[in-house]
Specification:
With 364 residues, this protein is of the alpha/beta class. The chain has 14 helices and eleven strands. The strands form two sheets. A six-stranded mixed β-sheet has the order 7-6-8-5-9-11, with helices on both faces. A five-stranded mixed β-sheet has the order 2-1-3-10-4, sandwiched between helices.
Length: 364
């Protein structure tokens, strides 16, 4: 009932970005977050504009990057505009899972969504480029950010793909941290992956990668994963370190393997009509809030990643996990697998050569 009430409210308060009057910033259910106290807005700059409330959503759990960056955007937006442009941000899946909130983004029932890359593929097929395994593993955050958020051919073409899907690409949060693998078996060598039953997202490219390693991928709703691991119905899963901590998976998993197979990236997007309907001053304010939030949270992601790994492997009492790290020979062995090379070609074909553009621009 909580989710249904929140979603009905979300659609009611923001449809077509009409003037909304005052807003105290507290979402009516869930974790809607903003505050109408104002901040350091330029005097008079926004006073002549109608107040607008945007509904934002993420499925990210408490403490995860997708939650934190959205909350910071809401805080900054409120400060910049003096409470004239408000982002009411719902976290922890309060407005639905990734597929639901992205569908509602396309319908303009939700105006802004923050989600990891995999769920976007069903809506913006070219985001499958992020499924290229280990493509970012050798690069630092600044190099990656220049390609994903800078004045690059990759950013331009990806933005066009979002527009074609009725969305506006607003930015991509990353800090050169990655999705990791947790398991109940030692994964020190490539052969150790053989036959391992691993939970993945509903993503054909992710599943093809795990099959190439000899594992048995099994898509599963995230809410079912802890109990499936606890009952040993599955042996492993893959996720970012903050998500693993938030779900207490150290209680039911023994090993934390730094496979670094997928960049831990959170994509910020808006409904295209909602974006186009904003006054240019509001557009500038939102871009500023997002830019500043990406810089602040992005700079902390490496530290957060390291702290979460420490939490899982050193500070969990009797449930400490064993950390497994790999050298370049392991990654080279994976990338040399014929099935992985075939996957690279297949993904590049899926995204009309965008994978080649990405690799060329990363390499400089």
């Amino acid at each position: 009932m909580k989710k249904l009430t929140a979603l009905i409210l979300a659609g009611a308060i923001t449809l077509s970005l009409a003037a909304c009057g005052g807003n105290n910033g507290a979402g009516s259910g869930g974790n809607g977050s903003s505050n109408g106290t104002g901040g350091n807005a330029d005097d008079g700059k926004y006073a002549s504009l109608d107040p607008v409330t945007l509904t934002g959503a993420t499925s990210a759990s408490p403490g995860a990057a997708g939650e934190q960056v959205g909350l910071l955007i809401a805080e900054k937006l409120n400060a910049i505009t003096g409470g004239q442009l408000v982002l009411d941000y719902y976290t922890n899946g309060d407005l639905g899972d990734d597929a639901t909130i992205l569908r509602n983004l396309q319908n303009n029932d939700i105006q802004l969504v923050i989600a990891q890359t995999a769920p976007y593929v069903a809506f913006v097929p070219d985001t499958a480029v992020f499924d290229l395994p280990m493509v970012f593993a050798q690069y630092d955050a600044a190099t990656i950010d220049k390609v994903l958020n800078g004045d690059s051919e990759f950013n331009q073409k990806l933005g066009e793909s979002f527009n074609n899907a009725g969305m506006q690409l607003m930015g991509i949060l990353q800090g050169a941290t990655f999705r990791l693998t947790t398991a109940n078996r030692d994964l020190s060598s490539l052969s150790d992956f053989n036959g391992m039953l691993i939970r993945t997202m509903e993503n054909n490219n992710h599943m093809a990668f795990w099959k190439a390693l000899g594992a048995q991928p099994s898509p599963m709703t995230w809410s079912d994963v802890y109990f499936a691991l606890q009952s040993r119905n599955i042996e492993a899963e893959e996720n970012a370190a903050d998500t693993i901590v938030g779900a207490n998976l150290h209680e039911v998993q023994d090993y934390l393997a730094c496979t670094n197979h997928i960049l831990y990236a959170n994509v910020i997007s808006m409904n295209k009509d909602a974006w186009d309907s904003l006054d240019p001053l509001y557009q500038e304010a939102l871009e500023q809030a997002i830019r500043e939030a990406l810089a602040e949270i992005g700079a902390e992601l490496a530290n957060i990643d390291a702290e979460n790994k420490t939490t899982l492997c050193e500070n969990s009492g009797s449930n400490n996990m064993t950390l497994i790290e790999y050298d370049n020979d392991f990654f080279a062995e994976v990338l040399a697998l014929p099935a992985v090379q075939d996957l690279y070609k297949n993904i590049d074909d899926q995204v009309n050569g965008l994978g080649t553009i990405l690799q060329n621009e990363l390499a400089g």
